[in-house]
Every structure is written in C-alpha cells, then in structure tokens.
Design brief:
The protein is an alpha/beta fold and 219 residues long. It has nine helices and five strands; from the N terminus they run ααβααβαβααβαβα. The protein has a five-stranded parallel sheet. Helix 8 links the parallel strand 4 and strand 5.
C-alpha cells in the first residue's frame, strides 16, 4: 500500500512539472503543498478549505479550529475555474475530505468574467466533487464585496445568487452567506475596518466575523 501511495505521489509530481512547463497557474504553490504533503500527509475525512488568497491568507485558521482536522489549501490569486481545471488532482481529491469549504470567484469577476461564468465554473467543480466524493459535504462560501472592488458588486451579488439557487436541490451541498457578516452595522455596505490596507483581504477582525458564521458548520 505504501509503495502504491509513493508511486501515486511521484506521478502527481511529474504531472505538476509537465503542467508547469505549459504555464500551470501558481505551480510553485502547488509544488509547495505537495512537498508539505510528502512530509506529513493529511488524514482522510478531514475538513478542507480550498480557494484563493482569502483562504491562503487565513493563516491562523488551523489554530482557530484547534483539534479539528483542518486542511488549508489557498492558492494565490486563483480563479474558480482554475480550481476545477487544474488543482483538484493535487490539493482536493487526494485528501478525501468529508467537508469541503470553497472560497473562490472573486478573482474571476475582477478579471472580467460574468456571474454566469462563475456559476459555470462552480457547476463543473461541484459535478467533479459529487462524482468522486459523493458523500462529501460541499460548502460554497459566498463571494465577499471587497471595498477596493466596489465596481463589481452587482456581479458579485448576482454570482452569489446563481450559486445559491443552483445548490438548493443538490445533495450534501450548502450555500454559506458570509456577506452580511462583513457589513457595517445597520447598512448593506462592507465595513472597511474588517479589511487590510489593500481593502481586498480580510484582517483578523474580518476573519472573526467569518468564523462566527462558520462555527456551526466546522464540526
């Protein structure tokens, strides 16, 4: 069994190298995760957080949920479609998680993609997960309205609504509405004090707000 796992790992590394030569996005980060896995591979049935830099920069996520089998795999400024098209064989399916929290789509919109494009990418990812891990619970973490990207708010909200409606009749699937948690009290505008100086990424207080919503789900 150990030999099979070793051969699988070598195969993944070779594939990752081949992709890198073809412009595999954020290949350095994927290689770093695989190196980390080679030292200490996460246990099966863990709780996977996967997505873009809002996951990558949540550096105390594991400490916030100490004692929980958290696997954090945030990839730079990746887009949702890239998770489906590139990353699932490397930092999703090998872990065989029982819960998968996904935060992505914000960078897709900033790159000019439509709300429908976000839904299309998520649909592909959901179908892949449902086929390979049919018992896994899938949680789509709603795309946040970042102050620096105010011109995209309409697309952000439209994308969130499309994904929410898509998941309504899907088994083991959940839409997690994090948007209100980042609003200024009594308003429907994001609270800039919850963001870093770039007004794009959450600070510790912002992650506190997210955690409060996620606490009942991360168990």
């Amino acid at each position: 069994m150990k030999n099979k796992l070793f051969l699988l790992f070598i195969g993944l590394l070779i594939s990752a190298g081949a992709f890198a030569q073809q412009g595999f996005p954020f290949d350095n980060e994927i290689r770093a995760f695989k190196h980390q896995d080679s030292i200490s591979f996460p246990q099966k049935n863990g709780i996977l957080f996967i997505g873009s830099s809002s996951i990558r920069k949540w550096t105390d996520l594991e400490q916030r949920y100490a004692g929980k089998p958290i696997i954090r795999r945030g990839v730079g400024g990746c887009e949702l479609w890239q998770i489906a098209d590139y990353y699932t064989p490397y930092i999703l399916f090998p872990y065989q998680p029982r819960k998968i929290f996904i935060y992505a789509g914000e960078n897709d919109i900033a790159a000019g993609k439509s709300a429908q494009d976000v839904l299309t990418a998520f649909t592909k990812l959901w179908e892949m997960i449902h086929e390979k891990l049919p018992k896994a619970e899938v949680y789509f973490m709603s795309i946040k309205p970042s102050p620096v990207r105010a011109k995209y708010y309409d697309v952000v909200y439209a994308a969130n609504d499309l994904v929410k409606n898509y998941l309504k009749d899907k088994p083991h699937s959940h839409y997690v509405d994090l948007v209100p948690s980042t609003y200024k009290p009594g308003t429907t505008q994001p609270d800039s004090s919850l963001f870093n100086n770039d007004y794009l990424h959450l600070n510790s207080k912002g992650y506190d707000k997210w955690q409060k919503v996620l606490n009942p789900l991360v168990k």
